[in-house]
Amino acid sequence: xxxxxxxxxxxxxxxxxxxxxxxxxxxxxxxxxxxxxxxxxxxxxxxxxxxxxxxxxxxxxxxxxxxxxxxxxxxxxxxxxxxxxxxxxxxxxxxxxxxxxxxxxxxxxxxxxxxxxxxxxxxxxxxxxxxxxxxxxxxxxxxxxxxxxxxxxxxxxxxxxxxxxxxxxxxxxxxxxxxxxxxxxxxxxxxxxxxxxxxxxxxxxxxxxxxxxxxxxxxxxxxxxxxxxxxxxxxxxxxxxxxxxxxxxxxxxxxxxxxxxxxxxxxxxxxxxxxxxxxxxxxxxxxxxxxxxxxxxxxxxxxxxxxxxxxxxxxxxxxxxxxxxxxxxxxxxxxxxxxxxxxxxxxxxxxxxxxxxxxxxxxxxxxxxxxxxxxxxxxxxxxxxxxxxxxxxxxxxxxxxxxxxxxxxxxxxxxxxxxxxxxxxxxxxxxxxxxxxxxxxxxxxxxxxxxxxxxxxxxxxxxxxxxxxxxxxxxxxxxxxxx
Length: 483
Fold this sequence. Notes:
By secondary structure, the chain is an alpha/beta fold. The protein has three domains: about 1-150, no CATH class; about 155-260, Rossmann fold (3-Layer(aba) Sandwich), CATH 3.40.50; about 285-480, no CATH class. It has helices at about 1-35, 40-50, 55-75, 85-110, 120-150, 165-175, 195-200, 210-215, 230-245, 285-305, 305-320, 375-385, 390-400, 410-415, 435-440, 445-460, 460-480, and strands spanning about 155-160, 180-185, 205, 220-225, 250, 260-270, 270-275, 325-330, 335-340, 400-405, 410, 430-435. α1 packs antiparallel against α5 (about 120-150) and α10 (about 285-305) crosses α13. It is flat.
């Protein structure tokens, strides 16, 4: 009986929240109109609702309300946010309001409404987002206070007694505002059970007694933390059992015990999938980085065009051979591409490299010599000032490289890699400059170089790219580590 009352209460609260959201959207619409419309236009605008109510205006208004409600439902704003963070819920609202604003713009074009200029839609998005975020944060605070008093509880049963399962239990226990009541763990005896008992958490039952436990207890959610390889069959049986009882199942996405940067849901051919990635540069972040690269490389190519002509002429006049040195390099996900640089060595430099192998001053597979006899006098100046790197702006414009990213390595260096973790650097586009460039370049040991690349991948943001670009200028002026 108590469960039924709880479900009825939840549905009533959901309907109330939907009604509040519709009211907030109408208020946002009115406030946006008041902010962006002049006094004379405002009189005409309000008369549309006050004096000229027609079938057409009713249809437009109804379509707008239904569109707003549909977008909020589609963007899952009415699903339980109990286990999500404030920032995640705020991001959901931002995305929903952005989509709704686009829909309203399309509606204005469809119905030929001239009173929806861009600044009105921008004001509507800003006001609506602010009102809905504040409302949801207040709701979270109220629900959190209620749950701390033992009301509106969510009863959770955890499958598995491994460290990840115990870690999840400690997380929900440390956050009483979530209102998660831990019923206990489900597992049979195994070698790590003694360690689990030391945690102090209760063992609800074994796997053979799970069906009976579900029949006799209120269970809202089963959190599965079972090893995939050895418990796949059992996991499938328990998922079916939970489905028969109508119980929510939570899966541990870190099923391979790897340190992923993030996970996302996706559907391939209508089949839901979980994708785990060790790379934070995905989706809109990668698109934003690419846009920055195109604009930046184009601007720099225009700016340095006179310098390109001067350097090309000097190279032709001072040594025989081509102006541009083109070499196969390893790019994103180990794709090969041709990288361009101003030639700084004699034209037969690659052919005589093997005879100089004993002079290599770099650890690992990279080949560097401080006083490389193959470098021309002009080449030393170009390398010291990093002017030789400028043709790589064409690679950035083509999409083979980025302004900022791990250094693009030759095929020879890649084939000499001895550690697989080094190869993670190829999961992002290579760049003209990176942390290695601003921290000493060739004076840094190879393993430290690789660590810096991993740090860049893990910490990436557009702000980090801007910071590295800014730090590259003094690094080039100092010429530290340049060979």
